[in-house]
Amino acid sequence: MNLATALKAQETPRIVAAAPAGPPAISLRGVEKVYRTDRIETVALQSLNLEVGSGEFLSIMGPSGCGKSTLLNVMGLLDRPSNGEVSLGGRVVSSYRDKDLAALRNKEIGFVFQSFHLINDLTVVDNVELPLLYRTMSGRERRRLALEALDRVSLSSRVHHFPTQLSGGQQQRVAVARAIVGKPRLLLADEPTGNLDSAMGDEIIGILTELNERDGATVVMVTHDERQAAKTQRIVRLFDGRQVH
Amino acid sequence: MLRSTLLIAWKVLTRRKFFAGVSLFGIAFTLGVLTVAAALFDQVVGARPPEVNAHRTIGVYSVMLGGEHMQNNGPGGYALFDRFTRGIPNVELMSIHSMPYSVFSYQGGSRRKLYFKKTDGEFWNLLRFDFLEGGPYTEKDVAEGRFLAVINEATRERYFAGGPAVGKTLEADGQTFTVAGVVPNLSLLRFAVGADVWVPHTTSRSTRYRLESELIGGYTAFYLARSKADIPGIQAEFVSRMKTVPLPSKQYDRIVAVPETVLQNVSRNLFGNRDAVASSKPILIALALFTVAFMVLPTLNLVNLTVSRTLERSSEIGVRRAFGASRGALVWQFLVENVFLTFLGAAFAFVFAGITLAVLNRADLLPYMQLELNARVMAVGLFLALFFGVFSGAYPAYRLSRLDPVTALRGGAH
């Protein structure tokens, strides 16, 4: 039994906020991203129109350097488009101030990175608590939610370990727990299985699938792996910054 | 949040032990030296027994007779204060007493130097000495010219082997005094009040000090205002009375004397118009600027070390930004981390300062100097640590917070 199936069998609470019917989770209209230096202008994204429905599980694929990660960063409000409009849950957020974007990222979006990006100086549970540090809540409540998220990824027995004491798969599960601890509507995963072997990769995809199917989370995943992409509901392909499918 | 920030600060500090050691040494040394300086400053001007009313006490520490071609400076004359400054409104108490002067005593067959101070009876009412035995002489004792003395603890130790001294006699400067009381040792850095032996004015060999012409003559006067707010009025009245003082010679056209705090006196002599009441702000600003200048190099060192560690923390910064940290939150985090570091440095600085002060006290550079690491000095040290932390943390915090989250996540801090 894989982890996703095992998790389905458990009576665990919904950890990601249920997707409301209504506007798309995220929508991009005429988005362009151009990187400029003194001499060179690099177009990373051009004329991109994309809508991701609430509760959808979408893969973004394409060759290296085609703009997949840039697209994910724009969707995650980590990067501003050079042109075009980004809407999150129906709100146009392209012109939001840094402080407001930070608050939106904190409440609405969870990130999973290829190289985990865990803070090695902090224990597993302290890493998972990190997004909640930027919310107003008691330490006790923060700890409760972090433990709940770790339970969700079957890492309750590793809460006081440090990331360097865990395997790659376990570290990515911690990263998933950190991404979902704040109950975001949107999960953005940038090659989450890129640094894992296929068995561990399957585990992670299983967890993401389960979060999408059971909790209604919208998941957008960048991947090179056709096999993993095939498990998602829709595949968007990019080439030279343009959407080709 | 604070717990997590402090935890990270500690981990980052211990990650590079050598650099942490260098940082902490720089901070501890800088703060330690400044804490020692603060203890010295506190010894000279801090409110402490017997000057418990220092906040509403002003004194005349120097008098200047000025003319076109002549200038004569020195502590005031007894008569100047006695004849012209009594009865100033809102002065609760006034005392005239000499600056400490040395005399020799041959009691017990050996020659010993003692610092004497001549005072009136009000001296003991205006200042609050904690008598170890006996008590002060009174205004009546002074008026009757009784040969009484108050001695300090060290003098009791030397002359009476530390045993009871009240009622016993002390011979010094060819005169014999009966000990009326014993008080704790008081550093001669508190030059306006400290001495080995205090005796009545009226035991002077000559009455010359009472002459009106003696405008300069080794005396100081203290005025205890009813409240701090009364001080400017008292100063104005005093200055106006000085204009009525007959000058001793045509070579002089004015007499300048101002009742003030020690800091005002230093400020007036260094920066202000010497003829008028000065604010103590210039000297305090000068001290603050000196302190900041002393901190500049260690600050640059700390800024450099902090910024050089950004590379290894760029991933963390990117993650924090991705999960909702605003730039302001990151500035706060890095400032708190830096202040934590400087507070840790302050803990070492206090140990360093404590040892240095003990060595200075043992060296007996000045009689009875007892430099202390008291609550006031420690508060100054902690304030300096806070200032140092913010001062040295502001630029790195600003720079780190401006880091683009995508670049930071890729590991590129520069």
Account of the protein in words:
The complex is a heterodimer of chains A (about 240) and B (about 425). Chain A contains eight helices and ten strands. By secondary structure, chain A is an alpha/beta fold. Chain A has one domain: 3-Layer(aba) Sandwich (Rossmann fold), CATH 3.40.50.300. In chain A, the strands form two sheets. A six-stranded mixed beta sheet of chain A has the order 6-7-8-3-9-10, with helices on both faces. Chain B has helices at about 1-15, 15-45, 80-85, 125, 140-145, 155-160, 230-240, 260-270, 280-310, 310-320, 325-365, 375-400, 405-410; strands at about 55-60, 65, 70-75, 90-100, 100-105, 110-120, 135, 150, 170, 175-185, 195-200, 220-225, 255. With about 425 residues, chain B is an alpha+beta fold. In chain B, about 40% of the residues are buried. The longest helix of chain B has about 35 residues, at about 325-365. The interface of A and B includes residues 79, 105, 119, 126 and 131 of A.
What attributes characterize this protein structure?
heterodimer; A: alpha/beta; six-stranded mixed sheet; 10 strands; disordered N terminus; B: 414 residues; alpha+beta; 2 domains; seven-stranded mixed sheet; 13 strands
Order of helices and strands of chain A: HEEEHEEHEHHHEHEHEE
Give the count of helical stretches of chain B: 13
Shape of chain A: globular
Q: Into how many domains do the coordinates of chain A divide?
A: 1
The gist of it:
With 245 residues, chain A is of the alpha/beta class.
Topology, please?
The complex is a heterodimer of chains A (245) and B (414).
Chain A: H1 3-9, E1 26-36, E2 41-52, E3 57-61, H2 68-75, E4 83-88, E5 91-92, H3 98-108, E6 109-112, H4 124-129, H5 139-152, H6 168-180, E7 186-190, H7 198-215, E8 218-222, H8 226-229, E9 234-239, E10 242-243
Parallel strand pairs in A: 3-8, 3-9, 6-7, 7-8
Antiparallel strand pairs in A: 1-2, 1-4, 4-5, 9-10
Helix pairs in contact in A: 1-7, 5-6, 6-7
Chain B: H1 2-15, H2 17-45, E1 57-60, E2 63-66, E3 71-74, H3 78-84, E4 91-98, E5 101-105, E6 112-119, H4 123-126, E7 133-134, H5 139-143, E8 148-152, H6 153-160, E9 169-172, E10 175-183, E11 197-200, E12 219-225, H7 231-242, E13 254-257, H8 262-270, H9 281-308, H10 310-322, H11 327-363, H12 375-401, H13 405-409
